[in-house]
Amino acid sequence: MYRGQATAFLMSGLVPLGVSILDFALPDLFGGLNPVPLALVVGVLALIWGIVRFRSGDIVPIARQLVIDSMPDAVLVFDTLLRLVDLNGTARSLLRTDHRDSIGRPLAEVFPEAIALVGSDKRPPGDGIVLVQRGAGAEQTLDIRISTLLDWRQTEIGSVIVVRDITEATLGAERLRSSLREKEVLLKEIHHRVKNNLQIISSLLSLQSSSMEDPRTLAQFQDSQNRIRSMALVHERLYRSENLARVEFDKYLHELVDSLVQTYNSRSKNITAKVDAEAVMLDIDIAIPCGLIVNELVSNALKHAFPNGLPGQIGVEMDQDRDDSRYRLVVFDNGVGMPENMDYRGTPSLGLKLVRSPTRQT
């Protein structure tokens, strides 16, 4: 483009000048005709052709130096042969080079780190992040963006490389990731310790109950152990899970019901317990109350719904309402059922109280 502009402007001046010299030196060359006006017309046509063909009349922004040089990103312009055509002040600081020493030099000398990202005939220009060693032990992380320059005919005339120093941002992101990893480890440790402490309490209750002879008191201790175990299972699942805030409640229900069946093994030999739950993730604030509800209802069914070793079935279902994101938790059995004259809202039973209270909470 620059070669064409120069040729057009030179022709616009040299043609009239050359014809004038020839006319002066050889008066008889043009047979007495004055060729200068015709030469001037040719020169004007060459000038117009240069302006239109190469857009030489486009307005050059007077603030180019101020805008480009004040950009925080380094900007480097290369021609089709990957020779440096222009660069701004940030690029000079990044490459630690002088403007006059860099112009015309190939990319491999000016900015070798970008060679692998520059396009070829078989591969388009690419973007990427590279590490650059600067000085003794100093390392920079550079975000490099490469764009192809096209003229008005959509012909490639070069490329622009924009470089942003993201060293501090990368270090900040790494510090943030490290902090998050530390907090995850700490949170896992908290869940692990809470689970262990609850298991210790359950073990203490078991030791205390081993010296008791009153069946009613022994049953109360066993119920307390089951309630503690239901809460410990929540923290155990959180400790094992990648998500430290939400519980895979379907898997939790399977573990809880299996644990209760094993606890009441002597009464549940002829009882089938089945869990049918969708893959539901619950926050810990909802999972623990729901776990207590299932614990109480399944425990009561195992203890009272099938007297004298009657066979039967206990079921737990959990699904989600797709319309309003609510959940449905159902515990049922085909046992003898509750007495018809029993008011479960006013019963002094601790188990039913523990069912009503979390129900209002959730």
What is this structure's SSE topology?
Blueprint: H1 2-25, H2 36-53, H3 64-69, E1 74-78, E2 84-87, H4 89-95, H5 99-102, H6 107-110, E3 128-133, E4 139-150, E5 156-165, H7 167-209, H8 215-240, E6 246-248, H9 249-263, E7 271-277, E8 281-283, H10 284-305, E9 312-320, E10 327-333, H11 350-361
Parallel strand pairs: 7-9
Antiparallel strand pairs: 1-2, 1-5, 3-4, 4-5, 6-8, 9-10
Helix pairs in contact: 1-2, 7-8, 8-9, 8-10, 9-10, 10-11
Task: Describe, in plain words, how this protein is organized in 3D.
A hairpin with a 5-residue loop joins strand 4 and strand 5 (156-165). By secondary structure, the protein is an alpha+beta fold. The two termini are 74 Å apart. The mean pLDDT is 79. It has eleven helices and ten strands. The protein is 50% helix and 18% strand. The strands form three sheets. Strands 2-1-5-4-3 form a five-stranded antiparallel sheet. Strands 7-9-10 form a three-stranded mixed sheet, covered by helices on one side. It has a two-stranded antiparallel sheet with strand order 6-8.
